[in-house]
Design brief:
Layout lengths: L6 E3 L4 E4 L7 H7 L5 E4 L2 H4 L2 H12 L5 E3 L8 H13 L4 E6 L1 H13 L27 E5 L11 E6 L4 E6 L7 E4 L9 H20 L5 H23 L4 H17 L6 H13 L3 H30 L7 H15 L5 H4 L6 H10 L12 H11 L1
Parallel strand pairs: 2-9, 3-4, 3-5, 5-6, 6-9
Antiparallel strand pairs: 1-2, 7-8
Helix pairs in contact: 1-3, 4-5, 6-7, 6-8, 6-10, 7-8, 9-10, 9-13, 10-11, 10-14, 13-14
Bound molecules: nicotinamide-adenine-dinucleotide.
């Protein structure tokens, strides 16, 4: 029988990690100073018995809970507006962001916006725009991930689509980091294999791009390489048997590790993936997985030595760039990632537009080789 670890961590925030720990949700809310939480999630997650059970944990402890369950996958600004209205009308004093990355991001941004007077786009992650926010107007957040991929539970940002420009924007503030996180791998056992694969590959993409970003940050690199090892060992197991709680637990760690690591930077995988997700509403992690080999090949010359070192840590033979690339291709195949963008349901008619968007995506700057529109077009063609 497999077992899964239990732990309390205070890095990068308070994390209650372990199977069954969702029963501590009311305590977690109280320790964050929340007495009237608004649960923010999507309709799919809201319909799962575990969501009602989590709300019941809070109610049984005397917390007056509300529910906003209209977050779309790849949330848009209108979702935030709608959630804010429910938050204010209900007199809530904090958010339980409950679900996948879409729900966590939306919940975090709703809590952030709850006491601001300026419009949301004033807080896009550009320069020091975050200093425009009133930190006292940010409501406390408890985050409860039910997928293992984005790591948004330990991040200080939320991704929201601007419907007018059809672009994914990052809303950032240091105080958007949830005060308490409950990482309970039991909440992910019902994830279908396809979402398990897409989210797991997202964690891998975060670690990989953080590791390759050319800035000096050895701490992040250490976290990234171990995160990739966990994905290598446990993602195929989690996809094969969703009830493998040990695999689910390690994937939950890998997800959080990816998000901690990518404070160092991301790169071409995300720069290409964001416009595709914004225009075609594809799953973020699955899109990352589809474009990953093309970006790796493009960066090969400058990341070869680093990737060989990583391949050694992962126990690959040969421990070379080519050995690593082959491992990525095999892993994708094993967990059912589509072979190219066409298979993902993306056509090539808007490639020029997407290439322009990719070159100015905030993550592009982390790629070890500059991403111009020409380069992005080349990458899109290669990933097609
Ligand atoms: P998601 O939140 O969009 O969820 C995908 C689907 O999984 C939904 O239909 C949901 O209902 C379902 N689901 C969630 N948990 C489930 C469970 N336990 N059982 C069954 N079904 C379940 O997917 P995601 O990959 O977790 O998040 C993607 C979003 O996160 C994108 O919007 C992306 O831009 C964002 N993101 C944010 C960050 C960040 O740092 N903030 C990082 C990466 C991605």
């Amino acid at each position: 029988m497999s077992t899964s670890p239990t732990a309390n961590w205070s890095y990068p925030t308070a994390i209650r990690f372990g199977a069954g720990r969702i029963k501590e949700l009311a305590q977690a809310c109280r320790s964050a100073g929340i007495g009237r939480p608004l649960f923010v999630t999507d309709a799919g997650v809201a319909a799962l018995p575990m969501t009602a059970a989590a709300m019941e944990v809070c109610r049984a402890d005397g917390l007056d809970c509300g529910l906003f369950a209209d977050v779309r996958p790849n949330p848009v600004a209108a979702d935030i507006e709608a959630g804010l209205k429910v938050y204010r009308d209900g007199g809530h004093d904090g958010v339980v962001a409950f679900g996948g990355g879409s729900d966590l991001d939306a919940g975090k941004v709703i809590a952030f916006m709850s006491g601001q007077t300026r419009p949301m786009w004033d807080f896009e992650d550009i320069g020091d725009w975050w200093t425009r926010a009133d930190p006292d107007g940010i409501a406390p957040i408890v985050a409860v991930p039910t997928t293992a991929g984005t790591g948004s539970e330990v991040g200080r940002a939320g991704v929201v689509i601007n419907e007018e420009t059809h672009t994914k924007k990052i809303i950032f503030h240091p105080k958007m980091l949830p005060a308490v996180v409950i990482c309970d791998p039991e909440l992910t056992v019902g994830l279908p294999p396809k979402i398990t694969a897409g989210t797991g590959m997202d964690a891998f993409a975060h670690c990989l791009e953080a590791y390759c970003a050319p800035t000096y940050h050895p701490m992040s690199e250490g976290i990234a390489v171990e995160g990739m090892r966990l994905v290598k060992e446990y993602l195929p197991r989690a996809c094969r048997d969703g009830t493998d709680i040990e695999a689910r637990a390690h994937m939950m760690s890998a997800a959080a590790m990816g998000a901690v690591a990518f404070q160092k930077g991301l790169g071409g995988i995300h720069a290409i993936s964001h416009p595709i997700g914004a225009l075609y509403d594809t799953h973020h992690g699955m899109t990352n997985a589809v474009v990953m080999p093309a970006v790796l090949r493009f960066n090969a010359a400058v990341i070869e030595t680093k990737i060989s070192r990583l391949a050694g840590w992962l126990g690959l033979a040969p421990a070379t760039f080519d050995g690593f690339l082959q491992f990525v291709v095999d892993l994708r195949h094993k967990v059912g990632v589509p072979g190219g963008l066409r298979e993902l349901g993306v056509d090539d008619v808007r490639f020029d537009e997407m290439a322009e968007m990719a070159a100015v995506d905030p993550t592009a700057g982390g790629n070890p080789i500059p991403i111009t529109p020409q380069v992005a077009r080349q990458l899109l063609d290669a990933a097609y």
